[in-house]
Amino acid sequence: MIQAPRGTFDILPESAARSPVESAARRKVVEEQAEKILGAAGYGRIETPTFEATEVFARGVGEATDIVQKEMYTFDDGGGRSLTLRPEGTAPVCRAYLEHGMRKLAQPVKLWYLGPFYRAEAPQRGRYREFWQVGAEAIGSEAPETDAELIVLLGELLEALGVKDTRLRLSSLGTPATRAAYREELAAYLRAHEGELSQDVRERIDLNPMRAFDSGDRGTQAVMRDAPILLDRLHPDDAEHFEAVRALLDDAGLRYELDPTLVRGLDYYARTVFEFTSDALGAQSGVGGGGRYDGLIELLDGPPTPASGWAAGVERMLLAARDIEAPTELVDLFVALAKREGSRTAFELALEARRAGLQAQLELAGRSLKGQLRHADRIGARYVAIIGDNGTATLKNMESGDERDTEINNVIPEILRAGRLM
Ligand code: AMP
Asked: Is 406 exposed, middle or buried (0-12, 13-18, 19+ CB in 10 A)?
């Protein structure tokens, strides 16, 4: 038996206990809810390619991030170009925004996406090398309402999917200038306590000092308790922006915890930053998050353009959700054969039934008539039409067990009539 290769991607990994078919049906529920909730707020769906020029992520995600340093599937396309399987969606959406002249549209341009993403991480529950994300971006507005709207929309999506025990953490990162000054201050503080820090944190003091707040090391944690906090260093404009976002979330009745140590893995964030976690998940508790990334479009050679957005992990939402039952498909009609000769008539009847809006299937496995009826029962068919001789059929109501002979031409109208009575 050929199996999916181990050690490459974990295809449709949400749960080993589920078949890929069930898994796809559950993903569809996520898609439908996202479409409904984001569509109602004016977000249009965008699709970008699975791979991009490596440069898009190297610049757009940030060279210093784990994603770019360690987690990208990068390859030469055979023509000397370096390509990368997309590890995230924001940089590609911004690339598309610039490339397709969306700057000329009314701003902000509000977009959402859903699809597979790839990161070379050590797999564990809730962390896969191929995973799906749903994301939303609003490009071209710096209004605090944009940030608040995006956060509320993600909250509504999580609620609609029944994601359990969610918590929202919120903070502000200020502008890049404030952040740069703060990073210097924090790095100096860390250097002054170098002896008490874990090796990992020590090595990253210059590259990414904010990561020290995430450390599991006890010595580092003790040092971080007295570390300077970015929220205390915000420029008045940024503090005011953050106050406005908070007031809007308060008005919306969305509960959040202020977390001044909230760090996003990506370097281009400014001002608002947030993350939803679920206590129903294990170590990988982040369900979705995002924030404002006013600097990104410029990094991709565009004009200064404020923007805000989020991404949420589809597998994690499904793992943390109350049972999402994908709706079972109805089968109105199963077309069975008493004799082989009726096969062309059966084929045609099934086609016509579908054209008339019915869900219809026909016998495809050469079963005996008894076997066909058993199969029809198993797939939950409401009616079975057994093709007879000379344009006749036996129409059997599978719920009541009633059956009677009729003209083939009457089969579809009879089912439609019965359907209307129900
Ligand atoms: P990020 O782009 O890192 O902010 O991730 C956004 C969301 O995507 C996270 O909150 C997770 O729900 C999900 N996610 C990120 N990486 C993975 C992964 N390797 N496997 C599964 N889900 C992931």
From this structure: middle
For the chain, the domains span 2-174+234-320, 331-417
Residues 156-194 pLDDT 10s = 999 999 999 999 999 999 887 888 899 899 999 999 999
Kindly state the tokens that stand for 292.
Answer: 């404002």
For the 2-174+234-320 domain, the top CATH level (class) is alpha beta
> CA-to-CA distance for 359 and 343, rounded, in angstroms?
19
Q: Does 274 contact ligand 1 (Cβ within 6 A)? A: no
Cα four-point dihedral sign 120, 125, 131, 136: negative
Q: How far is the CA of 299 from the centre of ligand 1 (A)?
A: 23
Q: Is 313 in the pocket of ligand 1 (CB under 6 A)?
A: yes
Helix or strand (DSSP H, E) at 248:
helix 236-251
From the CB of 209, is ligand 1 less than 6 Å away?
Answer: no
Q: Is there an atom of ligand 1 within 6 Å of 289 CB?
A: yes
**Can you tell me the distance from the alpha carbon of 393 to that of 405, in angstroms, rounded to the nearest whole number?**
6
Whether residue 314 contacts residue 27, with contact meaning beta carbons closer than 8 Å, is answered with yes
How far is the centre of ligand 1, averaged over its atoms, from the C-alpha of 276 (Å)? 11
Q: What is the DSSP string of 151-211?
A: HHHHHHHHHHTTB-SEEEEEEE---HHHHHHHHHHHHHHHHHTGGGS-HHHHHTTTT-GGG
* CB of 133 closer than 6 angstroms to any ligand 1 atom: yes
Q: What's the pLDDT band for 26 if we cut at 50, 70, 90?
A: confident
Q: Is the pTM of this model over 0.85?
A: yes
Strands of the sheet with 392-397, listed across from one edge: 360-362, 331-337, 381-387, 392-397, 403-407
Task: Give the model confidence (pLDDT) of 334-375 as tens digits.
Answer: 999 999 889 999 999 999 999 999 999 999 999 999 999 999
CATH of range 331-417; options 3.30.390.10, 3.90.550.10, 3.30.465.10, 3.40.50.800: 3.40.50.800
N residues, the chain: 422
> Cβ(316) to ligand 1 under 6 A?
yes
Task: Identify whether the C-beta of residue 291 lies closer than 8 Å to the C-beta of residue 272.
Answer: yes
